[in-house]
Amino acid sequence: MAHVERTGAQDCDWWQKKPPVRLPVPLAQAADLVTGELTIPGSRVIIGDSTNDIWLYDQRAATGIHPYQDGQAVGVLPESDWFRVRRAPSYVAVPHTVPVDQVWIEFLASSDDGEPILPYQEDIAPESRSQRLVPDIKSPPVRWPRLATKVTSVLGARCWIVSPDGVLPGFRALTEPYRTKPGTVPRVNLREGLDGLDKPVVTTSVTVTHERDWYRWKDTGDTRDMMLIEIETSLVWLE
Questions:
Q1: Is 154 a member of any domain?
Q2: 206 shares a domain with 124
C-alpha cells in the first residue's frame, strides 16, 4: 500500500494547496468559454431534468453533439458503463440520447477566488439557513471541495488528493477515516511541546484508489492490481 503523509518541509507548504471548484455550464454554451475546439466525448456531464429540477451526476459524454429531431443531442453513458467499456471493449453499452439543453459540462475554476455571495435568506429561520444554498434550481449546484476532516462520511466519495506533485483528481475513498499506525520515523508532536519530542503524532487516514479500479471492484469484487493509497485525511478533499 502506498502512503502519502506530511513529512519534513519539502516543497514548503504543498499540503496547503486546494483543489479547484467544478462549475456546471450548459453544454450549448460551453464552446464559447474555451479556446479551441471543445472535446466532449469522455467529459463528465450532468443531466438536468427541467420538469422536476433534479440533477443526475456520475455521467460521461459518449459522443459529440449530433442532430436530433428538431435540435441537437449528445449520447450519454452512466460512468460505471463508461469505465466498463474501457475495461472490456466487447461490452455493449448503448448511450442515452439526451437533448443538448438538458446537459451541463463541468469546468474547473480556482477555489482561491472565494465563494459567491449567498442568496437572500432573511425569510428563512436561522436554524434552517444553509452555507450552500442553491441560488437557482434551474441549474446544477456548484460543487465546492470539502476537506475530508470536516465530513462525517467519506466512503465511496469521489475525491482529490494533495501531494508534493500537486492536487490530483480521479480517486474514490475505499474506507472511512481510521487511526493511522505510528510510522518508523519519529516526528515531533508540537502540541505537547518538549514533552512531545520523538513521540509519534497520532493522525487519521483514509484509503483511496483510482476511480477506474474503484468501478472495477464495484462491478466484479476483483481487487487484483488495485493500487491502495493510505493518505492523511487532511490531504483528502471530497467533491
A1: yes
A2: no
Distance from C-alpha of 233 to C-alpha of 230, rounded to nearest angstrom = 9
pTM over 0.70: yes
Report pLDDT digits (tens) over 12-60.
588 888 898 888 888 888 765 554 567 788 999 999 876 677 889 899 9
Q: CB-based contacts of 145: which residues, under 8 Å, 6+ apart?
A: 18, 19, 20, 21, 111, 160, 237, 238, 239
For residue 220, what pLDDT is reported? 86
Q: Are 74 and 96 spatial neighbours (Cβ–Cβ below 8 Å)? A: no
Which candidate, 95, 93, 90, 92, places its Cα nearest to that of 45? 95
- CA-CA distance, 164 to 173, in Å (whole number)? 20
The H or E element that residue 218 is part of is: helix 211-220
Do 62 and 168 fall within a single domain?
Answer: no
One-letter amino acid at 70 equals D
Residues 168 and 209 in one domain: yes
